Amino acid sequence: MIEKKIQSKRGTVYYWTNENNNENELAIVFCHGLTADHTLFDKQVQHLANDYKLISWDIPLHGKSRPYQDFSFANVNKELLEILKQEKVEKTVLVGQSAGGYIAQAFINEYQEKVIGFVGVGTTPFGNSYYKKSELFWIKHYSSIAMLYPYSLYCKAGAKAVTITDESRENMHNALVKLGKKDMLKAASSVYGEFLKVEEEVDFNCPVLLTYGEYDNTGYVKKYNDCWADKTGFPLNVIKNASHNANYDNYKEFNQLLVSFMHTIK
To answer: Where is the AB hydrolase-1 domain (predicted)?
Structure first.
């Protein structure tokens, strides 16, 4: 994967891509979750790089895409659109893990014509109908609660809470340590603040695959995905031996699901 970047008045955004022959002008775009970075999808990159055009990026306020001003889903959409233009990509399959699923859904809302598939990994849907006010309490107050913890303890506990394998835990821990407490709090308040503004569901005009790890105890991820699948009819796969970062915990099973999904799109 080759490191590249785009720049705007808001900041520099970094992404990584391969030189796969992209005859169909199609790319799989990986959107990592809150406080993670592009390396969350290293196992997918290793498995798919010979067959597909891939783009993994550090979402603004994460990884190398710092500092960044005026964070909003609309501005993040602009950055992703610019990446696609720079790479001459016309159509995408978006893979969003956790809050990366919010980034993907926001992009689909605004640039639906660019997206021909969406894969959720332990993410949750846009739309007020899915959420009780009491269940949103921890999202509204996440930064305030996280601020109370010594950061070294937070990094260890946070990584352990979303993974079950040592390799996956190390990946998440490294991302948190590199981010630092100040930028972790800023990312959390910015991303969750935008999510809480969204009231309407996404009108998906593309194939959708929902997944979560069988040991994912993050918030109400399981409940929301079950409701999402029941309401929409979207296929839902529970990934064995995996927690919130299911695509890393059990990357073999997730990679198989993703490849099968891509074959249905082709």
So the answer is: 27-126
